[in-house]
Design a protein that fits this description.
Bound molecules: iron/sulfur cluster, fe (iii) ion
Helix content: 40-55%
Strand order of the largest sheet: 2-1-10-11-7-6
Radius of gyration: 24 Å
Distance between the termini: 68 Å
C-alpha cells in the first residue's frame, strides 16, 4: 500500500517484534483488523463508483483512489503498533473487547482527549484527511439521540442502534457518516424545495422497512467505507417529518451510486510520477452519494419521522466533528516541517524573519491544538452514558480551523518562494537533456541535491494548492459546517447575562 520503509512504528527491530508478540497475545480477543485485512475487506464490496463519466470496476487499486485507501488503512495498522495502542484503541463498553478507537463510544473525558490526540497523530503521519472520523462521530451522536428519543417516545431505536454498533465494533468497520444534503434553495425548508429530493427523504414506509431517496454531498472517504450512516442535515418541523430520517446500510446496498469529486492536481496521480504528487503515499477523497429508492430494513432505522430530534442529532454530530478537526493540527505539523526544511534548503533558516514566521506558524497550530484538547477535557456525560464534548469550545475550535490553516499556508508559501509554482516536472529532472540544468539551477544550498528541494516544494504545493489543500484549506473552511454555523453556536453557547452581571457588578 505504501512504502514499507515508511516505518510509522519506532519500536522496530527485535525489541519491537517482541513487543508486538506480547501485544498480540494480550489482545488475542481484540477485534482489530490490520491495514491489509481492511484492504481485502474492501475488495469484497460491490460498490457502484463513477469517475470521469465511467464506472470504476476495481475501486481499491484505482490510482486516484488508492492513496485515500492507504490513509484509512493506516488507522488499522497503527492500532497494532505498540507505541500507539493507548491512543488508537479502546475497550468496548458493550463487549469489553479491545477495539479500534474509531468504533468506540466515548466513556470518559479521557476518551475524548485521546480522540483529539489520535486526530493529530494521524494527520501528522498521513498529511491528509484519513476519513474515518465521520463514522465515529455519527456513532457517538446516534448513541445519545436514540437513547433520548426512546426515553421520551418509548420507541425502540437505541436497542437497534446498539445492535448495529456491536456489529461495527466486532468487524472493525469503517463507516461513512453522511449528513450533508444538496440543500437546493437555502431559503426553503426541505419539503418546500422545487425538487423534493434535494434533502434525503422517506418515500415509502413498508412493514419490513422504508424506501429512501435523495443524495448526500461531500462524503469524505465514502468509497473506502463498509457502511454508510445517514443522518438529517438541519433542524426540522412537522412538515419535514419525511426528511427526519437516520439509518445505516452496507455501503454497497442496491440503489446507492457514488460519483467521485475531482481534486486540484488529481491527475498527477495518473502520470506515473512519484514526487510530483507531493505526498507519495496518502490522500483523501469525497463523493456525491445518490440514493435511488434504496430499501432500509427497520432494524437499521434509528430515526423516522420524529422531526423534533433532528436538530439535536445534527448539533451533536457537528460538535463531535468540530472536535475531530484535531486532524488539521497534525497536517499543520507536516506543513510547518516542510516550510522549515525549505528554508534550510534555501540557506535562510537563520534569518530572523523566517524564524519569526515559523514561530507564528507553530503558535497558530498549537492554538488549534488547545481548542480540540479543551473541548474534550471539558466534556460531560449524557444520559446514555456517552461523553459529549463541550459544545461551545468545539465550535470555537472549528471556527479557528476555518482561519488558521489559511494563515499557516500563506506563511509556508512565503517561506517556500515562487519556485513552488514554477518548478519544472519530475520527468524534466529525470530527462537527460534537461536534468543537468535542473540539477544546476534548481539547487539552493550546494550540499542539498535539487531533487530534495523539489520534493519538499512539491509537498508544500500539495498541501496548500494541490489535492491535499482540499483537506487542509477548503475542508477546514466548510467541513463539519461552514464558519457561520459555528458563529451561530458560539452566540447560543455563551452566557451573555453572566458576563454583563460581572461587568455591572464591578462598576457599581
Ligand atoms: Fe477526519 Fe479531519 Fe478527514 Fe474530517 S477532515 S474525516 S476530521 S481527517
Ligand atoms: Fe471533513
Amino acid at each position: 500500500r505504501y512504502d514499507p520503509a515508511y516505518n510509522v512504528c519506532t519500536a522496530g527491530g527485535p525489541k519491537g517484534i517482541f513487543l508486538t508478540v506480547i501485544e498480540c497475545l494480550r489482545w488475542r480477543r481484540a477485534m482489530l483488523m490490520t491495514g491489509s485485512q481492511y484492504e481485502e475487506s474492501l475488495r469484497k464490496l460491490n460498490l457502484v463508483v463513477y469517475l470521469f463519466g465511467e464506472r470504476i470496476e476495481n475501486v481499491v487499486d484505482h490510482p486516484l483512489i488508492r492513496p485515500s485507501m492507504n490513509a484509512v488503512a493506516l488507522t488499522y495498522d497503527l492500532a497494532h503498533c505498540p507505541q500507539h495502542t493507548e491512543i488508537m484503541t479502546a475497550t468496548s463498553h458493550l463487549t469489553g473487547r479491545r477495539i479500534n478507537r474509531f468504533t468506540h463510544i466515548h466513556q470518559s473525558t479521557d476518551d475524548l482527549v485521546k480522540k483529539s490526540k489520535m486526530g493529530r497523530l494521524l494527520g501528522s503521519l498521513t498529511g491528509c484527511c484519513f476519513q474515518r472520523c465521520v463514522g465515529m462521530d455519527a456513532l457517538n451522536a446516534l448513541s445519545i439521540t436514540t437513547h433520548d428519543l426512546d426515553a421520551r417516545r418509548k420507541t425502540d431505536y437505541h436497542r437497534r442502534f446498539l445492535k448495529f454498533l456491536e456489529y461495527v465494533q466486532e468487524n472493525d468497520l469503517t463507516c461513512d457518516g453522511a449528513m450533508t444534503d444538496p440543500k437546493g434553495d437555502r431559503s426553503l425548508a426541505p419539503h418546500a424545495q422545487a425538487d423534493p429530493d434535494l434533502y434525503l427523504r422517506v418515500v415509502e414506509r413498508r412493514t419490513d422497512g422504508i424506501i429512501v431517496r435523495g443524495a448526500k454531498a461531500h462524503q469524505t472517504g465514502a468509497v473506502n467505507s463498509h457502511a454508510i450512516i445517514v443522518m438529517p442535515t438541519i433542524a426540522m418541523r412537522e412538515a419535514d417529518r419525511d426528511y427526519a430520517v437516520a439509518f445505516a446500510l452496507p455501503s454497497d446496498a442496491p440503489g446507492i451510486t457514488y460519483i467521485l469529486g475531482r481534486q486540484s492536481c488529481d491527475t498527477r496521480k495518473l502520470e506515473g510520477a512519484t514526487f510530483d504528487r507531493g505526498n507519495l503515499f496518502f490522500g483523501g477523497h469525497e463523493a456525491l452519494v445518490v440514493f435511488d429508492d434504496v430499501f432500509v430494513p427497520w432494524e437499521r432505522v434509528f430515526l423516522c419521522g420524529e422531526h423534533e430530534f433532528a436538530g439535536g442529532l445534527v448539533e451533536q454530530f457537528a460538535s463531535y466533528h468540530r472536535q475531530s478537526y484535531a486532524c488539521k493540527v497534525g497536517v499543520g505539523d507536516v506543513l510547518i516541517g516542510a516550510a522549515q526544511t525549505a528554508a534550510e534548503h534555501n540557506g535562510v533558516a537563520k534569518a530572523s524573519h523566517i524564524r519569526d514566521k515559523i514561530i507564528e506558524m507553530n503558535h497558530l497550530n498549537e492554538t488549534l491544538y488547545c481548542g480540540c484538547i479543551a473541548c474534550a477535557a471539558e466534556g460531560h456525560r449524557e444520559a446514555s452514558g456517552t461523553y459529549m464534548v463541550d459544545t461551545l469550545l468545539a465550535n470555537v475550535h472549528k471556527q479557528n480551523v476555518t482561519r488558521f490553516p489559511y494563515e499557516i499556508a500563506r506563511l509556508a508559501q512565503d517561506i517556500a518562494g515562487g519556485l513552488l509554482v514554477t518548478l519544472p516536472s519530475e520527468k524534466d529532472l529525470k530527462a537527460p537533456e534537461t536534468g543537468r540544468w535542473l540539477e544546476k539551477y534548481c539547487r539552493g544550498r550546494a550540499d542539498v541535491p535539487a531533487e530534495h528541494r523539489m520534493r519538499i516544494l512539491r509537498l508544500i504545493e500539495n498541501l496548500t494548492l494541490g489535492a491535499a489543500a482540499v483537506g487542509y484549506l477548503t475542508e477546514s473552511m466548510h467541513g463539519a459546517g461552514s464558519p457561520q454555523a459555528q458563529r451561530v453556536m458560539i452566540a447560543r453557547g455563551v452566557n451573555m447575562k453572566e458576563k454583563q452581571a460581572a461587568a455591572k457588578r464591578l462598576c457599581g
